[in-house]
Design goal:
By secondary structure, the chain is of the alpha+beta class. It has a single domain (26-171), classed as Mog1/PsbP, alpha/beta/alpha sandwich (Protein Transport Mog1p, Chain A), CATH 3.40.1000.10. The chain has 4 helices and 11 strands. It has helices at residues 2-12, 79-84, 87-101, 155-168, and strands spanning 17-19, 22-29, 34-38, 43-51, 54-65, 68-76, 104-114, 117-126, 132-141, 144-152, 170-171. A 7-stranded antiparallel sheet has the order 4-5-6-10-9-8-7, with helices on both faces. A 4-stranded antiparallel sheet has the order 1-2-3-11.
Length: 174
């Protein structure tokens, strides 16, 4: 019965939440253990990359609309690495790797606490995209690392949309 009560709000959610003329819809990833509002249907993403601790698989979703790119990815880190490294060190490695992968030049980094879990919010310019600004929020939940990314063509017009996206991101544990 408890499960049914928790599932009802998403089922009863309005079909679209309008903001700035864009229909935002709830999206839930049971395997990713997150939910978020998105302005369009997401496409799945996946990949594998090598680290000193071994291969790490990336799974996620992304949305591209006129002038707005949004992505949520999650990585299950090796449990052994999480035992030997502090949360801050893991977030340091993740931030550094993200900036390398995204051709980013760091503008600012701030600690973040997301639902009681350690995180970091980064703002950086993408040198491969004409120095366009991008934002990322890294969140560590046990051995799972979430990376929430947002980029807009026109920062002043999209600030509210990016805030809506980041603020709607919710995670749950097993």
């Amino acid at each position: 019965m408890v499960f049914c009560l928790l599932a009802v709000p998403l089922w009863l959610a309005p079909p679209a939440l309008h903001a700035e003329g864009v229909a935002w819809r709830p999206y839930e990833s049971p395997s990713g253990r997150f939910r978020v509002l998105l302005p369009a249907s997401p496409l799945p993403t996946s990949g594998v990359f090598e680290t000193r601790a071994g291969s790490i698989r990336e799974l996620g979703v992304e949305v591209e609309t006129a002038g707005l790119s949004l992505k949520i990815e999650h990585h299950d880190l090796p449990r052994l690495a999480c035992l030997f490294l502090s949360d801050e060190r893991i977030l340091d490695f993740a931030a550094s790797g993200l900036l390398d992968d995204r051709h980013g030049r760091l503008e600012s980094a701030e600690p973040a606490l997301v639902q009681g879990h350690p995180g970091r919010t980064l703002r950086y310019s993408r040198t491969d995209l004409g120095n366009r600004l991008e934002q990322a929020r890294l969140v560590l939940v046990g051995n799972r690392l979430y990376i929430v990314l947002a980029r807009a063509d026109n920062a002043s017009d999209s600030r509210a949309q990016i805030a809506r996206f980041f603020n709607s991101f919710e995670i749950w544990e097993d």
